[in-house]
Amino acid sequence: MIHFWATWCPTCKLEASNIEAVSKAYDVLTIAVNSGSDAKIKSYMKERDLTFRVINDVDGKWAKQFHVEAYPTTFVYDASGELKFTEVGYTSTAGLLARLKMSE
């Protein structure tokens, strides 16, 4: 699963605990877009007890490559790397887990 989010995004803040829960059971990579320095993101994560993997997309380059236009946006891939689901906006932990399970 690849999850695009931003520190300035209110919906992303609400969804962060869902991403955290899913990251305990599945391989999750998150990309923080236009969210400031590595130190700022690290501080944001620490303040919220978030431990999922995050790449800092300082200038939105990765978001552009994935054609992300709204946050949060989540891509779910199967084991062979085929895209199975794309979700824009808030998704519950149960919804994310169901999509990942269906992609196995």
Name of the CATH homologous superfamily = Glutaredoxin
SS elements, strand count: 5
Beta-strand level of the residues, as a percent range?
15-25%
Helix content: 25-40%
Note the total helix count: 4
The secondary-structure element order is EHEHEHEEH
Low-pLDDT segments, ≥5 res: none
Query: Describe the biggest sheet?
Result: 5 strands, mixed
Kindly report how far apart the N and C termini lie.
12 Å
The CATH level-2 architecture is identified as 3-Layer(aba) Sandwich
Quickly give the structural class. Answer: alpha/beta
Radius of gyration: 13 Å
CATH class: Alpha Beta
Q: Tell me the strand order in the biggest sheet.
A: 3-2-1-4-5
Number of domains: 1
Shape annotation? globular
Residue-averaged pLDDT, rounded? Answer: 97
CATH topology: Glutaredoxin
Structure description:
The chain is an alpha/beta fold and 104 residues long. The chain has one domain: Glutaredoxin (3-Layer(aba) Sandwich), CATH 3.40.30. It has four helices and five strands; from the N terminus they run E-H-E-H-E-H-E-E-H. It has a five-stranded mixed beta sheet. Helix 1 links the parallel strand 1 and strand 2. Helix 1 packs across helix 4. The mean pLDDT is 97.
